[in-house]
Design brief:
This protein is mainly alpha-helical. The chain is built from five helices and no strands.
């Protein structure tokens, strides 16, 4: 890639946008929720238990219904997942995480559409995916089969 003064200006502008996002109320709230989540011992214990159970679940899944602990492990995994998902600190963290993702999606769409409405912008948000064959947050090579270049 040939680096021109225009390229440098564009990169500087992108860096400026990144700094603005980092200084936004949305990201500040996310940081607060992340700190609270990391400090919440009950939430951390639940997540650690779920991670262990998930590993066990994956082991059981290799054998499927034929594994002697299939039903027990499957049920315990669902129950632990529900406990994690209903924990207030986890709920607040996930809301904050989604708000940051929404902000990033909106910025991506604005940048992409400023060039052309045919630009594919992987947002993972069906509201923004307007019929492109590459929606659903596939920028990392997801289930749609596309790949990062």
């Amino acid at each position: 890639m040939l680096v021109t003064s225009e390229t440098v200006q564009l990169l500087d502008g992108a860096e400026h946008i990144g700094k603005m996002i980092l200084q936004s109320d949305v990201v500040e709230h996310y940081r607060q929720c992340l700190y609270t989540f990391r400090q919440d011992q009950e939430a951390q214990v639940l997540v650690a238990e779920f991670v262990k159970m998930k590993e066990r679940y994956e082991e059981v899944q290799r054998f499927g219904r034929y594994h002697p602990d299939y039903k027990t492990v499957t049920k315990q995994t669902r129950e632990l997942k529900r406990s994690v998902d209903l924990h207030e600190t986890v709920i607040e963290f996930k809301k904050a995480e989604n708000a940051v993702q929404k902000l990033l999606d909106e910025v991506s769409v604005i940048l992409g559409y400023s060039i052309s409405e045919q630009i594919k912008v992987p947002t993972g948000n069906p509201f923004f995916d307007t019929g492109s064959s590459c929606g659903g947050g596939c920028g990392s090579g997801g289930s749609c089969g596309c790949s990062v270049h």
